Amino acid sequence: MSDRQPAAPAAAPALGAALPGALPALDDAVRGIALVALGYAVVACADASVKWALPQVGPAAAMIWRGVFGALAIAMLARGASLRPVNLRLISARSLLHCGVTVVYYIAWAGGMPLASSYAVAAAAPLLMTLLAIPLLGEAVGWRRWTSTAVGFGGVLIMLRPGGALWGWPAAMLLAAVGLMALTRIWTRLLARTDSPATIAFWLLLAHVPVGLLLLPAFPPPVLLPGAPVVAALVFLGCVNGLAHFLFARAFALAPVSVLAPFEYTTLVWGLVLGLAIWGEFPAAGTLLGAAIVIAAGLYNLHRERVRARTARRAATVGDGTHR
Fold it and tell me: 44, 45, 113, 195: which could join 270 in a potential S-S bond, CB 3.0 to 4.6 Å?
């Protein structure tokens, strides 16, 4: 993996979809898609490993293991490059927010929530990213995307309906965490203007260590020393999490949020496969129906973004020809 600095501010999708210089090169967009898709596959395997280990270690200790080995993995991927943050304030805020997201997911999994069900709730993240990109990145959203986003949140309500399989405080808490996760995804794009992917990922993982230590009194480990298979699962968790967040940071430096956001949905497929293979889990019909609506709405938002980008390119081309 390259450790060169990410794209300059002009590569960000802020107001700038109408400016040809602000549009990513096709090669960059394709590489960003490949990296983020691989990242989601890797992180799904890491999530399966920690869900399997949680009964023996608890959420706080799992965070510490993740932070220690994840930060070490990033340091190795950096190959001696500086990991000193440039935008320290935003890196710190993003890292701490993501620790909060991690805690919520671990609590939900420790309570028995199926992996695929948690990913079904997380399918709302791209819709939230569409909304957050308006004030944070200056992106314009027309009535069509507003409508599809509203339909997508209707799908979320179907999943979380009273009496449904996900009805209860864990799913509500998870939905709030998904909102924070969407914000950290946007901040990743902003941080790519100043900091390298390795720096962004390193400090995110390292922040899990002190936060996990602070949470130990609230979530003490069920056993003092877990067995060798659990230790192996936790080392795997940390290392592949480091790799995944490195891939995410690099991907969001290469391509706009609107291009990469729909690939969040691939975790639902991985969750179905891993949950069924390891625990025999399968989401309820209502969960799958709501997730399908959310995914359809997100894919429509992607379609509208592509239409908008093509229109901006044509307008820019005509403008350049007019002034020659």
Answer: 44
125 phi/psi in degrees, rounded to 5: -60, -45
Eight-state DSSP code of residue 53 = H
Supply the pTM of this predicted model: 0.77
User: Which among 281, 284, 283 has a CA at the least distance from the CA of 51?
Assistant: 281
In order, the DSSP letters of 91-153 are: HHHHHHHHHHHHHHHHHHHHTT--HHHHHHHHTTHHHHHHHHHHHHH-----HHHHHHHHHHH
CA gap 5, 255 in Å, rounded: 14
Count Cβ atoms within 10 A of the Cβ of residue 284 and give its class: 0-12 exposed, 13-18 middle, 19 or more buried: middle
Q: Looking at beta carbons, which pairs linking 78-81 to residues 24 or more positions away fall under 8 Å?
A: 78/3, 78/196, 78/198, 78/202, 79/3, 81/3, 81/196, 81/198
The answer to whether the CB of 151 falls within 8 A of the CB of 57 is: no
Cβ contacts of 145-149, under 8 Å, gap ≥ 24:
145/300, 145/301, 145/304, 145/305, 148/297, 148/300, 148/301, 148/304, 149/297, 149/301
Structure letter (DSSP) for residue 245? H
- Give per-residue pLDDT as tens, 148-179: 778 877 887 787 776 666 777 888 899 899 98
- Which amino acid would we find at residue 298? G
CA–CA–CA angle 143, 288, 282 (5° rounding): 155
Token readout for 317 is 């081309």
Q: Which of 149, 100, 150, 161 is nearest to 261 (CA)?
A: 149
